[in-house]
Design goal:
397 residues, 21% strand
Amino acid sequence: METPGSQTSLHRANLERVVRAVRAAGSLTQAEIARTTGLSAATVSNIVRELKELGTVEVRTVSARGRRARSVSLSSDAGIVVGVDFGHSHLRVALGNLAHQVLAEEAEPFDVDASADQGFDRAEKLVGRLLGMVGVEREKILGVGLGVPGPIDVATGALGSTAILPGWRGTNPREELAARIGVRVHVDNDANLGALGELVWGSGRGAGDLAYIKVASGVGAGLVINGQIYRGPGGTAGEIGHITLDESGPVCRCGNRGCLETFTAARHVLPLLHASHGPDLTMRQVVRLAREGDPGCRRVVADIGRHIGSGVAQLCNLLNPSRVVLGGDLAEAGELALGPIRDSLGRYAIPSAASQLVLLPGALGGRAEVLGALALALREMGDGMILGQAAGSTTKR
């Protein structure tokens, strides 16, 4: 019998510690594993050899700082994870392996305000299609990350506000998708997953804390503190779109007046250009036209940036993040949006907070949320699950 503090339990703990470090980073050299885990080089070498024999990890020779090193990653055959992202106008699904490699990815138009059942049915079909494309059986799925454009109670997986997604009233996204795919699902809102995606693969790499600002049909922020997503007890942390800018302003979908969202979200700003550019204009087109020099679109983008900067300034005064990443379609505007954001930061943020802040456009574009969903599934996966039979065999030694 395994007892706490025994050699057997210590050995298993060390195995899981190494697997956890490699899973979080995607790949590490043995020297990096030793630094990350605090284990000795000899212990790491023995554990890596054991995990390789069991098929849990793959080892290849690389060059690190001019020297040959052994890079360790989780086996590509150990299983896969699925990322599902519901945007307000799209559904995107990706498959990835435990070595942080994206195996397949596909997106299709979808109105998220329609029936939730229809959305989950389409997600299940899209997952099945991608599995067929890569030739992987459904039994190889170890976990699923799910993103939805609204606040989530992480403890229950339920939506925190049915006013934002009225077509999803009475549904539990986590349970609905889990019932269709047959594996555990981890759910979060799209801004949090965008932050996680940029943290792992994009402009947030190397940052211990950051705020990811997504401007699309709504406005939200994903907050990372000490390398972890901060959600708050009700899952609503980061809802900067509902900071009040004008108490006499337009009525917001949340029921209040003059929220930041009413001055920046696509549904509110696009009508400003309908008279000159037609009713079918999208935010992506506005950004493209602004970059091409269209004066009306440039003015709208600058105004959005100025208002977003006011919200980000309040965020910086409260949390003092070291990095802010701008996501969504607005990020493609570059300095046309970033410049006005900086101007507002300089005006409204505490100087010490603004001076230490790095403001960057997102590197992942529209993929940030689905890659964040993959990262969420990888982070929430138990290391014992990855070890599988390997963990079981080691406890008998």
